[in-house]
């Protein structure tokens, strides 16, 4: 399934390394969105408005595939994605793996838009926008 639009209600700006309030901000963001988990549909954490790479500032928004009252739309760019299957509990470790792959030159990220998809059954996937390899 190729997403074209996501609709977000909650957003925050942060930095993985320079924001001492990072854990608290994520907790508050997910607290705001807690009611969405009762909808029994996929929920998305969208990473966008990157200042640079994973060490720079960025925005995170919580979204659905359909609009709710007050939701803003965000167009999902047509780009190639590296997909990392995980669980909700393993999301932080999966991001550590993604950053390691990038540092090792094994993952060439675009930094346009990335997202986590949380399915109602507890499974999760992280979609990382990647540069298209020449010849593919």
Automatic annotation (TrEMBL):
Signal peptide (UniProt feature, chain positions): none
Coiled coil: none
Domain AraC effector-binding: 1-131
Recorded superkingdom: Bacteria
Stored InterPro entries: AraC_E-bd, Cass2, Reg_factor_effector_dom_sf, YobU-like_regulator
Pfam families in UniProt: Cass2
Protein name: GyrI-like domain-containing protein
Organism lineage string: Bacteria, Bacillati, Bacillota, Bacilli, Lactobacillales
């Amino acid at each position: 399934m190729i997403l074209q639009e996501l609709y977000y209600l909650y957003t925050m700006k942060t930095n993985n390394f320079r924001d001492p309030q990072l854990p608290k901000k994520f907790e508050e963001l997910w607290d705001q969105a807690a009611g969405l988990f009762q909808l029994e549909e996929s929920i998305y954490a969208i990473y966008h408005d990157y200042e640079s790479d994973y060490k720079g500032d960025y925005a995170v928004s919580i979204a659905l595939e359909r609009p709710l009252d007050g939701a803003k739309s965000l167009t999902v760019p047509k780009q190639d994605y590296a997909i990392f299957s995980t669980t909700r509990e393993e999301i932080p470790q999966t991001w550590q793996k993604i950053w390691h792959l990038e540092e090792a030159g094994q993952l060439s990220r675009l930094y346009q838009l990335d997202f986590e998809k949380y399915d109602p059954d507890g499974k999760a996937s992280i979609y990382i926008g990647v540069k298209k390899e020449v010849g593919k």
